[in-house]
Write a structure and sequence with these properties.
The complex is a heterotrimer. Chain A has 13 helices and no strands. Helix content of chain A is about 75%, strand content about 0%. Chain B contains nine helices and ten strands. Chain B is globular, with a radius of gyration of 18 Å. The longest helix of chain B has 17 residues. Chain B folds into two domains: about 160 residues, 3-Layer(aba) Sandwich (Rossmann fold); about 70 residues, no CATH class. By secondary structure, chain B is α/β, with parallel strands linked by helices. Chain B starts with a strand and ends in a 6-residue tail after the last helix. Chain C has a two-stranded antiparallel ribbon. Chain C is about 75% helix and about 5% strand. Chain C starts with a helix and ends in a 10-residue tail after the last helix. Chain C is an all-alpha fold. Chain C is globular, with a radius of gyration of 19 Å. Chain C contains eleven helices and two strands. Classes of the chains: A mainly alpha, B alpha/beta, C mainly alpha. Chains in contact: A-B, A-C.
């Protein structure tokens, strides 16, 4: 595991980076951190509880559209809007999780995909709320009554994103180290045994899905405020796949690994897309390669760790 | 007063009667073995008591309370812990962690999503105590998946014990063990039971094990009880001998 | 009279829809039942079938040729993939299959995009199958009739294949006890490759059948995957008969649902899946939950 000292250094580096980088690099960094938060949220499900979701884009899109609507139609300051959007995603996820956990294994995964597709289809039709295929545009970063205009600048928003990521990371760390986290681990390694010990595993699964969706929703909300627009791509299954790839390639079950995976993904995407139009093809191949030969992910490679039971 | 009471418990699977109007009473502190030839319904009986299956008919009472129809995790919370025929552990967790998470299940705030020092501490105490009683302390830091088969079976018992159960259901604890491993396991279990304070229901195939450990024996044949007595009497029982085709000795 | 005509044509419609769903579901159930692999790429093979079918028609000028060529090509691709990649994963747990077949979906999607472009492609029907026929005064496309009939025929063929032929017997035996089959001298690995190839071939032929109706497009894969899994979840993983029944059920729900509640069409299918999962988590005839 990455030690507290390393993490502190990383956090400091991230905090100081924007002061020395050109603006376009800061943009890239913001995207990376948002995706990192998104991937880390999925890791709670995939890496720590072995619940494979193929529909995590639902969380992202939910958060993005909620934040978009809040910022467009109310005066809620951007900080509160994104947080609210995250909470809302988490609440919706309780219902989603209740249904999906009726099944286990691949049926569970397919149900998560089905929900994401359902939301995707709804987004196309529900024009007043989602703007249909055009999406929402012109989303402002409302300063609010205390004049917090700092978030309207790129650098200012960067620190908002960084703050959210660090806070979410600390929250997740605490969660997986807690008694609740120990039960998740039991579910991951042997759910039947965990049930037979007296734990109502379904409740735990629902809870972790809700938390994962809340944090994923927060990421989506941050994206909406950052980009200033949303569209149905944010709910598309391709995004669900990409974030899953980030988790596996980065290293599932580590929290930090998926963040690294997200950065890796963005960098490769940037690099490859200057050479070829079909970078997605290479990504699929890289992904297959990692599953076959490097199941411990990038973080595992870097720290010399064996693969856990997650992949 | 009987701690566990079964009254005419029956379980049907379609046309097959797996458990046929079984009645039995297990007193507190007793070690009761349930034996019978293959297919006699022993494991099914365990599934019924622990809540994995629901009875088609009949009542199960535990400490006076009705257990019939409750889901398995509730029954476990009432103080009934069980082990399984096929070893089920958490292979990547250490032995100590296995025992700890078993004990954690009985804690009021087992679901706490932050901190947990006090909860883990209390669970570890019960877990470590259970490991000690099963002579597993020397492998406490090894991943459970790397233990010998014999130690894995004992770890399962330790996990049950760590839950401080009022009733412990052991489903063929010596299943798959070599002669030597069985001997060691039996001695450990004998010591454990001799300490007292445990009510145990034990399914076993190995007669030597049964006679070494049990206070009383219930014999099942084709789902029904054909004998329920102290070991010497069961040994001499001709019905039992016939059921096993050729006698026990 | 009007209502009778309407009812019958809609039922035929549902059956034709069920046929498409059945091609998908049968292939996946076959693969899962024998190999315990969850083939996420099944939708991609379906899509590949549609595109290969398009090219086959372009090349040979014959839709019938495409019906034969496409499943062969798609099945071969599937078998090759199983040989090269999936074989390495049998020792790992099921999630590895899910991941790898998902990666394959992405790769195939891109390869298809690069080869055929992004525009949806129209696959023309032979004269024999185009046009309409009148059933109780209601017009009904001949192609859909053909589709419904083909579905029934293929279902019967598969059933007989599994029950009566030697390979079918081997397949059924392998699904129950692979080690025993191996001990009896058959190379189980060959059986597995064959099954995966056949399963993908079935998806491919489904793609060819579907192409004239929905046009070959890049969006086919995810929807097909979901449809397939809905069928298999409702029918029960590993149950061939279950997929057939589920396909008919979903076909009817989709067709009649779209007619009476057009906006809820998508939701209806998911609601059906939910209902089945709540009432019978293992699926209607499932062997595994």
């Amino acid at each position: 595991m990455t030690s507290p000292r390393v993490l502190l250094v990383a956090a400091l580096v991230l905090a100081l980076l924007p002061l020395g980088l050109p603006l376009y690099a800061v943009t890239l960094l913001i995207e990376a951190l948002i995706l990192g938060l998104f991937a880390m949220s999925l890791d709670l499900m995939v890496g720590y509880t072995r619940l494979f979701s193929f529909g995590h884009a639902a969380a992202y899109g939910l958060g993005a559209y909620t934040a978009g609507n809040l910022l467009l139609h109310t005066d809620i300051p951007v900080v509160f809007a994104v947080l609210l959007a995250g909470v809302f995603s988490g609440v919706v996820a309780i219902g989603v999780a209740w249904v999906c956990t009726l099944a286990t294994g691949v049926s569970f995964s397919m149900l998560t995909l089905a929900f994401a597709q359902l939301l995707y289809a709804i987004a196309f039709k529900w024009t007043p709320v989602t703007g249909a295929s055009d999406g929402l545009a012109g989303i402002p970063r409302t300063p609010g009554p205390f004049g917090l205009v700092v978030f309207q600048s790129k650098i200012g928003f960067y620190y908002l994103v960084l703050g959210c990521l660090i806070a979410a990371f600390m929250f997740c760390r605490s969660l997986v180290a807690s008694p609740f986290g120990a039960v998740l681990r039991g579910i991951r390694e042997n759910e039947a045994k965990t049930r037979s010990l007296g734990y109502n595993t379904r409740h735990y699964k629902i809870a972790v899905v809700a938390i994962a969706y809340a944090l994923g929703g927060l990421a989506g909300a941050l994206y909406a405020a950052f980009a200033g627009f949303t569209n149905t791509e944010l709910l598309f299954w391709l995004l669900s796949g990409q974030v899953l790839i980030m988790v596996i390639v980065g290293g599932a079950g580590t929290l930090v690994g998926p963040i690294i995976g997200a950065i890796f993904f963005l960098l490769v995407q940037q690099y490859l897309s200057t050479y070829t139009d079909s970078w997605a093809l290479f990504f699929g191949l890289i992904f297959i390669g990692f599953v076959l030969f490097i199941p411990q992910g990038l973080l595992g490679l870097m720290t010399g760790r064996r693969a856990s039971g997650a992949a | 007063m009987a701690l566990l009471e079964l009254v005419d418990v029956t379980r049907r699977f379609g046309g097959i009667i797996a458990v046929d109007a079984v009645s039995m009473r297990v007193a507190e502190g007793e070690v009761r073995a349930v034996i019978g030839p293959n297919g006699a319904g022993k494991s099914t009986l365990f599934h019924l008591i622990s809540g994995v299956l629901k009875p088609s008919a009949g009542e199960i009472r535990f400490g006076g309370d009705r257990l019939t129809g409750l889901p398995s995790h509730r029954i476990c919370q009432r103080g009934v812990s069980r082990t399984f025929q096929l070893t089920a552990l958490f292979p990547e967790m250490t032995v100590r962690e296995n025992a700890r998470i078993a004990a954690q299940a009985r804690h009021g705030r087992r679901w706490q999503p932050y901190g947990g020092g006090a909860i883990f501490g209390a669970a570890a105490r019960h877990g470590d105590a259970a490991l000690e009683r099963l002579d597993l302390t020397h492998v406490a830091h090894r991943p459970a998946g790397l233990l010998s088969h014999g130690d894995q079976r004992l770890l399962e018992v330790a996990m049950g014990l760590a839950q401080q159960p009022r009733l412990l259901l052991l489903d063929e604890p010596t299943q798959g063990l070599s002669v030597e491993e069985t001997g060691q396991a039996v001695e450990t279990l004998a010591k454990l039971f001799a300490d007292g304070g445990l009510t145990v229901l034990l399914v076993e195939h190995d007669m030597e094990v049964v006679f070494r450990l049990a206070h009383r024996i219930t014999v099942l044949h084709r789902g029904a009880v054909i004998a329920d007595d102290v070991p010497e009497a069961v040994r001499a029982n001709s019905d039992v001998q016939n059921a096993y085709l050729g006698g026990i000795d | 009279m009007d209502f009778l005509g309407f009812l019958i044509t809609q039922c035929l419609n549902a059956l034709s829809q069920a046929a498409l769903l059945f091609f998908l579901g049968a292939g996946l159930t076959l693969i899962f039942g024998i190999m315990r692999i969850v083939n996420f790429a099944h939708g991609a093979f379906f899509m590949l079938g549609a595109y290969v079918g398009y090219s086959a028609v372009q090349l040979t000028g014959s839709f019938w040729g495409a019906l034969i060529l496409a499943p062969l090509v798609v099945g071969s691709v599937g078998a090759a993939f199983e040989l090269a990649i999936l074989r390495r994963l049998y020792r790992r747990d099921g999630n590895a299959f899910l991941m790898v077949t998902f990666g394959l979906t992405l790769v195939m999607g891109e390869v298809i995009r690069l080869t055929w472009g992004v525009a949806a492609l129209n696959v023309p029907l032979p004269k024999l199958l185009s046009g309409i026929v009148f059933i109780f005064d209601e017009p009904f496309p001949i192609y859909r009739l053909f589709l419904a009939a083909s579905g029934i025929v293929v279902a019967l063929v598969i059933w007989q294949f599994l029950e009566r032929t030697r390979l079918g017997l081997l397949i059924r035996a392998t699904s129950q006890n692979a080690e025993m089959v191996h001990a009896l001298g058959t190379d189980v690995r060959l059986v597995r490759s064959a099954v995966f190839g056949i399963g993908c071939g079935l998806a491919g032929i489904g793609g060819v059948f579907a192409a004239p109706l929905v046009t070959a497009s890049l969006g086919m894969a995810p929807n097909a995957v979901i449809d397939t899994f809905v069928i298999v979840i409702i029918g029960g993983m590993g149950s061939f008969l279950g997929s057939a029944i589920a396909a008919v059920l979903v076909g009817f729900v989709q067709v009649f649902g779209t007619y009476y509640f057009p906006d809820l069409a998508l939701a209806l299918m998911y609601l059906l899946m939910l209902l089945v999962l709540v009432v019978r988590p293992g699926g209607l005839l499932g062997k595994e939950a």
